[in-house]
Structures are given as structure tokens and as C-alpha cells.
Predict the 3D structure of the following.
Amino acid sequence: MFDPTRALLEWYDRHQRTLPWRTDPTPYHVLLSEFMLQQTRVETVIPYFERFIARWPTLSDLAGASSEDVMEAWAGLGYYRRARNLHAAAKMAVAQGGLRADPEAIRALPGVGAYTAGAIASIAFGLPEPAVDGNVDRVISRLSALREDPTKAKGKRLIREKVMELQPAERAGDFNQALMELGATLCSPRSPSCLVCPWSEGCEARALGIAESLPNKPKKKQPVPERGVSGLLWTGQGWLMGRRPPDMRLGGLWEPPSGLILAGESSSDAVIRVMRDHAGVEVEVVRSLGEVLHVFTHRRLTREVFEVRPRGVMEPCASASYDAIETVPLGDSRGMSKLARKTLALGGALTQEP
Ligand code: SF4
């Protein structure tokens, strides 16, 4: 008779990917990997994970790091709120004597939602907890041909109940990881590999021919288009950059002064205004260097990048948009977002003077 738990664990034992956080799943390694993996692909996370544990081998080391260093090490991984929450969670856990085998205490850490708490509790401590992410929504909805929307309360409850019904007490962490692995590798959203799936025999959605239509989630909203500008200003010693305040999007990271174009404003007028209001510098436009495109969760930003030069004596100053304005020399390693790097690269500004 088809036993989904056994079939899944046997498949996982044979096919699981070798990942650095799986070789030594200490509570710290699991916490770090789960923060990094939110909204981010495994291949992207691996080098960041390895750099973090080389630089901060223990949770206490990470808790004792400066927020500037953590942001710099995180730069390029995106969704920067995670880095601030990770650092705050490390500090809180260390103040409490370390991460504890208590789902409620784990859930109370900054940035830890139900999924991350369940993953840490089950993988690091072997506790019988569900860890339901988008992959798990999909494989469980398909296994049982559940038509309930997994983003609504009833759908959530049904999926959690099904996970707990299948989860073996002695291998809770492996089972949760196997569910995610199945969703990440075989049971893909658009073309599930049912022929080689360990659940092929008992999967109801496959039998009904409705796998691709599940889970029954509402359609994602299209990102709102936005237009912005950046000014690249060479001071003689480096590029003029601002640091985003900690409570703002991309907080703690450096970028060339940037902002949105106002209604009815030309892009060259916008960059002159942005340089004045955000960085305290009067400039004139030298030339447009082209556009960069960046997609955030809900916004699609097209940014025109200008080379600008100062008009008169420069006295850059901080503003509501930047809590520090400095000249950043070429090759400086301070934390920058991927968007800032794309912006600088457009003018060759990462590696050369104008
Ligand atoms: S049989 Fe197909 S639809 Fe069902 S869980 Fe496996 S890959 Fe997904």
C-alpha cells in the first residue's frame, strides 16, 4: 500500500542535495540559512552562507558584529530587512543564553514567522512542528488534490494538518526538508516531473490530471512601474554616495544619490533636484548614461543614470533620504545594494574614473 511518508523519506535519503547547512545543522546554521533562503534561490545563498560562517563562526560572533559589517556582508543578497532582523535575532537569542528548543521562543525572535520557526524547531531540534512554505503548499495541495486557497485560513489549516498527519515523530526535520526538496526539484509550479516523483503512485492531483492548476492561489499582482534617476558625481577622489537611513528600504546601504521623478518633471530636472534635496549639492547635467531596470517585490523601477558635475563649491550634506553623504573611492568594499552596483556599473563607475 502507498505510504507517502516512507516513499518521500526514501527518495530524500537517495536524492537530497548536498547543501552546506545540511552537513552540520546546528541551530545557528539553520537560523542563518533560513533567513537567507527567504525569497532567494539556494545557488545564490550558498556563497553568502559560507562567507558568513567563515567570518562569524558562532551565533555569539554574529551578535557581536557591527550592523555595518553585517549589511556589508549581506550586500547583493537583497531584501535587506532580513539582514537587520537576523542581526537583531542573533542578539536577542544570545541575550537569552542561545537558541532554545522552544517553538514559542523561536517564533518571538525578530523576523521569524511561522515557517522559519517551524523549520528551525524541526531541523535544528527535531521537534514535531510543520514548516509550510510555498513549495510545501504546492506538494501537499497536489498530493491530496486540495482546492482550498493556501493563503486563506482554512487552506492554511488543512495543509498544516496534512503535514502533521504525515510527519514521523522521529524524523520531523528531514521530513520537512524532504517536502521542500520535492517542491523545489520535481513538483515544480508549471511542469511537475510526475513520472519520477516518489508520490506518483498516490498523488490525487496527478490521477485527476489537475496538478498544474494547484495550489489554488490568487494571481500575483503585477509590479507597479516607477521611474527614477541617479546622479554620478566624481569628486576627484571617488564617487559621491549616500547611506540610506536604517529604517528605510535598503537601510544601511550606500548608493549614488537617487530618487523618483515627479509628475510633469523631466528626468534631467529630476536629477538636479535629487542632488540638491537629497545630497545638498547644486549640479548640472553632463550627459545621460542610460537606464537600469530593477524589480522589487511590488515595484518595477526604471532608473535613468546621469553623469553630473558640481556648480560652484560643493558642500554635501545628509538629508531625510541619506543619513551620511561621503566620497567613496573606487574599489571601496562598503555595503551597496545590487541596484546601486548596477547604477554605478552603467557608467563604468565601479572600476574607473570618468
Ligand atoms: S506526482 Fe506530480 S503533482 Fe504529484 S507530487 Fe509528484 S510531481 Fe507533484
User: Anything to note?
Assistant: Residues 225-346 form a domain with the Nucleoside Triphosphate Pyrophosphohydrolase fold (CATH 3.90.79.10). The mean pLDDT is 93.
